[in-house]
Amino acid sequence: MLQKSQLHFGLHASPFRTDRSIPLLSCEIDRCKDCRAYINMFVAVSEGGRRWRCNMCQAENTLSESNNLMNPSGSYQHCVPQQSIVEFTATKQYLVRETPQPAVHLFLIDVSAHSVSSGMLATTVNVIKDHLFAIPGGCNKRLAFITFNDTIHFYNLKNDSGHPKIQIVPEISDAFVPSYEGFLVSLEESEEVIAELLESLPALYRETNITKSCMGAALKVACELMQLSGGRIMLFLSCLPNAGEPVLLDREAAVEKSTKEGPNYFLPASDFFTVFPSEVCSKFQIGMDLFLFTSQYIDVASLSNLARYSGGTCYYYRGFDVNNFPEMTEKYKNELSNVLCREMALEAVFRMRCSKGLSIENYCGNFFRRSFDLLVIPYANPDFSYSMDVHVDDDLSRLSSVAFQSAFLYTTATGERRIRVCTLCLPVAKTIGDLFRFADSDSMICFLAKIACEKVLEAKISSVREAFFSKVRDILAAYSQGVRGLPKGQYVLPMTLSNFALCTLALMKSVCFDLRTAYKLDDISYYLHLFRIFPVPQLIMSIRPCLFALHYLLEAEHIFQPLPLTFRSIEETGIYLLFNGFEIIVFVLEKVPAILLQQLFGARDFASLSSSYHSKFSCTFPTLENLISQKARALVSYLQGMFPSIFPLFFLVKSTDSNFRSFVSKNFIMDKTETNPSYAEFIDLLYK
Fold first, then answer.
1. 51-53: strand order across its sheet
2. Is 385 in contact with 13 (CB distance < 8 Å)?
3. Four-way CATH pick for 104-342: 3.10.250.10, 3.40.50.1820, 3.40.50.410, 3.40.50.11890
4. Low-confidence residues of the chain, pLDDT below 50?
5. Which residue spans of the chain are classified as CATH 3.40.50.410?
6. Where are the CATH 3.40.20.10 domain residues in the chain?
7. Which in 121, 275, 498, 645 has the greatest CB count within 10 A?
8. Which CATH code is given to the segment(s) 2-96+346-435?
9. Strand positions, DSSP E, 328-367
10. pLDDT tens-digit readout, 57-103
11. Rg (CA), the chain
């Protein structure tokens, strides 16, 4: 039945979300003797609580003695979770290390000439300095700092002398850690020395003209320093690694625009970027976050794999320059602050179990897959998700429901070992009509996107786009003929999938899968990286933006409602805000009322409003004492906080600007572009 429907069966999981209160159970952990599933609220309890039947494999189990105590009334008090998501305090058998380790954070910073001249170094150390005590791990957390250009620089932060001491390793072909004493220190014990180091770093390298970067060698010694403790490396890089191993070359310069869709350029240029994180980092439980800054090609396709296989995230800031691009600086400050301060899970493993007759086949996300069903995640955060395919192996018609259970075993930043168990129970559809009635359009689109991100590495973008089109047509035909009984060639979509065709077209117009040659290889690679890990709401917003009419704020009781994403929605007297998860674009039409310009921007008229006016307030509207300004700023603030992992750039564009139409039209997914049809044309193509 599932095969006939052409629908995708899969799961999206965010096992470390922190936006809800989860009960912590300290009782003995009961697990099924056959399938090893954890006891959960859906199990059937019998014999007064002494026995329970697994909802995964139906095996009968006996409750452990410590969880099966008799009350004075003569009944059994048993420890069965009462919520679908619970956490257990892990016992000794689940420990990675006999003695819990404090959270370790190592900052690996590029101090080559471009890092200094762009302002990256100064901005980075200032943000770190402002958030030292908000970094997870409490008072016992340990910090280390290593900088590099054509040599590697260690900093002894032990509080004996009261000042940081630098030790330079010039031999990068066989780099080593000079000493294991004083480089990895407790913040509580070395607070003043760390603060002095952060204060002095920009001045220390202010006059540098070194353009070399031995990132690979620096990364190896950083992992060597952390091999006994594990933890997180935060790597800041401003140029292609060009000293020592590995060396990366400018692949974009060697590629003709017409051949850019070839798959090789989205694969890592060296095995180092897959082998090192999957073998070294997973072995020592080290995760990585990357921050890349450049106006030139930096090979995101290669570098992002360091984060991908260690559980971290890659951030990319094209054109970063403190003086010339203040909006990007604000974006970086906010995103770095979030990464520094958000909760973190260390030494994690993830496994998904399901009922008999089902199996999990493919996974998508940032992890190292150690075995068929075990994902190793040295460092996890609450902002991103993992996706997996579900395959139906046997006939499920005899069942009324099936169950899925994720187990996320991790260490908190304060050293506690826990197991977060999430159990989901779903009814089994009896007819193909039921499948379509309860289909989740957004989830299916996200699966298409994530699968396509992997396909791009082995096939041309054009063939991936053809697969999108074929998938929509197959689902249309399956529903129209299989459910509605329409003649062949007549198509209709169910209400649950009413936006499916539009979102598929939007996916084809996204940076990852558009055929336009205007997009840089690094831009495409960065979006591919993010699409793999974005949770469903964030990925949907990335491909299907929201458009709001700000001029309706003149109406006292106006409630923001998204408009259709087409230029036909635009009035020449309006002001609009467009949000796509990465950017907040405010565009002003020429005949907008002067009172609205005055209340939103403090500008007299359209002519006096400059497109660079927003640099004065950088990431929102100016603070003005009127209700319209308050509502507009509240909307921007809400959008900026919607997805903490990505802080959107704020742009102001006038309809008279030369780049207005091209800047805005990329988000109008219902309109025609040079490489894609309009929504109406797309529907016509489907029906032909």
1. 44-46, 51-53, 60-62
2. yes
3. 3.40.50.410
4. 70, 74-76, 257-258, 260, 263, 613-617
5. 104-342
6. 545-665
7. 121
8. 2.60.40.1670
9. 345-354, 358-364
10. 999 999 887 666 545 554 445 567 889 999 999 888 888 777 778 89
11. 27
Which letter does DSSP use for residue 276 in this model? I
| Cα–Cα distance measured from residue 126 to residue 199, given in angstroms and rounded to the nearest whole number | 8
Match 């096992």 to its residue by tokens.
15
Comparing CA positions, the residue from 632, 605, 607, 450 lying closest to residue 538 is 450
Helix (H) or strand (E) holding 124: helix 120-130
CA 576, distance to chain mean position in Å, is 28
Strand 231-237 and strand 104-110: pairing?
parallel
Q: Are 574 and 558 in contact (CB under 8 A)?
A: no
Question: Which residue from 575, 546, 514, 550 is spatially nearest to 667, judged by alpha carbons?
Answer: 546
Per-residue pLDDT at 257: 46
Phi, psi at 152, each rounded to 5°: -110, 135
CB 148 within 8 A of CB 244: no
Distance in angstroms (rounded) separating the CA atoms of residues 77 and 79: 7
Strand 44-46 and strand 51-53: pairing?
Answer: antiparallel
* Residue 442 region by backbone torsions, left for phi larger than 0, else alpha for psi between -120 and 50, else beta: alpha
For 559-601, strand residue ranges (E) read 575-579, 583-588
Distance (Å, whole) CA 444 – CA 458? 22
At CA 50, angle to CA 49 and CA 56, rounded to 5? 80
Closest CA to 223 of 272, 267, 187: 272
φ, ψ of residue 587 to 5 degrees: the values are -120, 135
Angle at 410 between CA 531 and CA 181, to 5 degrees: 100
pLDDT at 66: 67
In the block, tokens 């009922």 appear at 355
Residue 49 in contact with residue 70, Cβ under 8 Å? no
Contact 586, 651 (CB under 8 A): yes
Closest residue by Cα to residue 341 from 137, 36, 640, 53: 137
> How many CA atoms, within 13 angstroms, populate the side-chain half-sphere of residue 101?
25
Contacts of 449 (CB under 8 A, 6+ apart): 507, 510, 512, 531, 539, 543
Q: Which amino acid is at 307?
A: A
Q: What is each CA distance from 216 to 76, 152, 283, 601, in whole angstroms? A: 60, 11, 18, 48
Burial class (CB in 10 A: 0-12, 13-18, 19+), 100: middle
Three-state DSSP state, 560 = coil
Residues of the chain with CATH 1.20.120.730: 440-541
Query: What is the number of other CB atoms lying within 10 angstroms of the CB of residue 490?
Result: 12
Q: What CATH fold (topology level) applies to the domain 440-541?
A: Four Helix Bundle (Hemerythrin (Met), subunit A) (1.20.120)
Q: Report the relative pairing of strands 314-318 and 286-294 from DSSP bridges.
A: parallel
Beta-bridged to residue 672, according to DSSP, are none
User: Phi-psi category of 36—alpha, beta or left, where left has phi over 0 and alpha has psi -120 to 50?
Assistant: left
Determine whether domain 545-665 maps to CATH 3.40.20.10: yes
Establish how many alpha carbons lie within 13 A of residue 370's alpha carbon, considering only the half-sphere containing its beta carbon: 16
Name the β-bridge partners of 108.
146, 235
Nearest in space to 154 (alpha carbons), one of 247, 224, 212, 207: 224
CA-closest candidate to residue 221, choices 106, 366, 302: 106
Q: Is 436 helix (H, G, I), strand (E, B) or coil?
A: helix
How far is the C-alpha of 300 from the C-alpha of 59, rounded, in Å?
48
Query: What's the Cα-to-Cα distance from 332 to each of 148, 340, 400, rounded to whole Å?
Result: 21, 12, 50
Residue tagged 């699968």 (tokens): 451
**Cβ-proximal residues to 253 (8 Å cutoff; 6+ apart), any chain:** 297
Instruction: Give me 549's structure tokens.
Output: 């009419």
